Each structure stands twice: as C-alpha cells, then as structure tokens.
C-alpha cells in the first residue's frame, strides 16, 4: 500500500489532482491513521468539506501538527462556518486555494503541486464513510528503471577498491590490502607458530606448503616425552583422541578395507607402541598418486630400544652405512636406513581404490641418549613416497626426546 501513497504524491506534484485524490482515498481505506496521506488529500480536495475533513483528520492523528491547525483556523475564519461533517460535501462551494504544506515521504522531498487547485469544484462524488468498501477505477501503474553508472571496473578508478565498499577509494583499497595480504600473512605466521592441532581444519590445512601444513604430536612413555612434526592430517591413533575417533568412524564408512576383518580401529596404539595414521580421504583415495591409494602408518615401539653409540662423531664416521644422518640436540645423531620395497599387504587394500602393487617401508633411528635409541617404521604405498618426500625428511629431523 505504501507504493500507492508514493504514486499519489507524485501525481499531486505533477498536477494530476483527480487521479491523486482517487489513489489517496484508496490508500486511506486501509490506512486511515496516516498523517501524510490526509495532508496530501487536503492539497487535492474537490471542495470545502473534503478539505476541512482532511485537515481535521490530520489533527485527530497528530494534535501537535501546527501547520494543519493554522490552515484549518485560516479556512474557518475565511469562510466563517462551523466545522463540516466528515464525508458530507457542500455542492457548489468554492474550494480553498491555499497550497498544501511541504512534507517528506520516504526520503523524497515533496512540496507544492505544480498547478493551483481549480477555483470552482468540479462534479464531485462524496467519498464513502471511512471503513466502507470503495471500488475505484483501476490504478495506472508506472514503472521506472534506474541505472547507476559505475565509475570504473570496480566502482572507482582503481582496481581492488571493490565498489568503494561504502567509503572512499583509498580507504577501500586499504581494506582490500588488509583482507588480501595482511590477514593471510598473519594467519600463515600463526599457523607456522602454532604447532598444535587445528581440529577439523587439520585436513584442509595439511595442503599448505612446508611447516604451515605440519603440526606437532607429543607422545609420553615411561621416563621420556617425545615430540615430532607431521603433516596436519596425520593423527595419533588413540582411543582417547576424539578427533581420531571421528576420522576413524568416517573412514570405516567411506573408505573401508577389502578385508572385512580389518578396520581403521585396528591401527590404534597399544601399551608399548604408538601409531600415527594419515586420515585425509583425498590422499587415501590416491588423488596425488594417479589414483593409487592406501594407508600411511608410522609406528614406534618404545619398549624396543637399539643399543649403540649415538655420539655424532661416531655416527658421522659410519655414515656410509646409512641413507641419511640427522643431528639432534646434545651432540647426538640418528640415521635413516635404506628404504625397503615389498609387496603391498592384502589386508591393507581399500575398497573402490586402485590398489598399489608395492609398499615402501622407511626405517629410522632417533637417540634416547648416547647409548640407546628408538626405531621408527613408516609404511606407505610406494606411489605416495614422492608426495611425502619433504614431510618425511622434516618429520625425522624434528624428533625431540626429553627425559622426564
């Protein structure tokens, strides 16, 4: 209904008094307490009675409207007659030519009509008493199309201002700079300094480059605390690890094993063995390895310890026996043995995933002290070794073991 009032105001301003009057009466049938509608009805009134009634209704709604009160007093003084009964016209009486008061409607200034009201009232049909139905002629609908011309490809002359974003272009470009460069840089810095798990975000974050895509996993065994950096999508397979339990159950439903006696729960750690498992479904399904996928599992048995001399001088002296030597704190060194390739175990084949023909086993030893070390075993499809190449080196180099 508000659009009817708006259209009536525009018609009154354009001098189309009769059409404006008809729309105003149509609007007032359902909204009789709209002050601005009665004011505009006064401006296009067909005779004295309608003019007087419109102003009277304005004061009924808003007794503090001084403009309407002044116009009504002026009218009554000029014509020296008692107030008219609403809805009953006085035929043949001259309608006042006082222009309507200015008003405002939905932010658009509306003022006096462009033409003076007719000096003598035309043939007039009394309006119905408020509340009774009225069937006016069909309204004419006018549709206007407004096109806003943009000042540039992004709303102003500079790329990146994004329509000026409701402020000046330089402010908008500053905002764009913060959103596109500063905040991502801060986020990347926070990720690189935040070794802890990101919960459900770990899996997508694992695709970030270098240390951004890695997290720290801590293990505690009798007398020692062990930490290492792994891809963020690797989880400690522990029944007390809530995120592992979520991913374990999802994988059992979405990527089950061909061997129905095997499940992802089968990897869970035991009293003397820690097991860390890749849970990213994209990697497991073989996306980075031409569709060839399978489990990636890292194991360490803390009860099985290697005896030897882990002083860096001795290890480097025997480096020809190892694939790679790694330096750790306290002048101690560990080593990676030559990788072993063997047939992929049938129990690790996944349903609906192209099975790898070979499995690569990577074995490395990290020192507990200068005389003992721990043996770690990483088992993965041979097709995924290149995908994890940098992560494996970073993982082995990151192992820290602290005596409690």
Question: Please, could you describe this protein's structure?
Answer:
It is a single chain. It contains eleven helices and 13 strands. Strands 5, 6, 7, 8, 9, 10, 11 and 12 form an eight-stranded antiparallel beta sheet that branches. It has a three-stranded antiparallel beta sheet with strand order 3-4-13. A hairpin with a 2-residue loop joins strand 3 and strand 4. Helix 3 runs antiparallel to helix 4. About 21% of the residues have low confidence.
How would you summarize the topology of this molecule?
Layout: H1 2-13, H2 17-30, H3 35-43, H4 48-61, H5 66-79, E1 103-105, E2 108-110, H6 169-193, H7 202-205, E3 214-221, E4 224-231, E5 234-236, H8 242-254, E6 273-278, H9 281-284, E7 297-307, H10 312-317, E8 324-327, E9 333-336, E10 340-343, E11 358-367, E12 372-381, H11 389-398, E13 400-403
Antiparallel strand pairs: 1-2, 3-4, 4-13, 5-6, 6-7, 7-12, 8-9, 9-11, 10-11, 11-12
Helix pairs in contact: 1-2, 2-3, 3-4, 4-5
**What Rg do the Cα atoms give?**
42 Å
Mean pLDDT across all residues, rounded?
A: 78
Shape summary: rod-shaped
In total, how many domains does the architecture comprise?
2
The stretches of 5 or more residues where confidence is low (pLDDT under 50) are: 82-166
CATH C-level of the largest domain: Mainly Beta
| CATH domain fold name of the largest domain | Jelly Rolls
Number of strands: 13
Query: How much of the residues is beta strand, in percent?
Result: 15-25%
Second CATH tier, the architecture of the largest domain: Sandwich
Helix content: 25-40%
Order of helices and strands: HHHHHEEHHEEEHEHEHEEEEEHE
Put simply, the count of helices is: 11
Report the biggest beta sheet as strand number plus sense, adding barrel if it closes. 8 strands, antiparallel
Question: Pairing-aware structural class of the strands and helices?
Answer: alpha+beta
C-alpha end-to-end distance: 78 Å
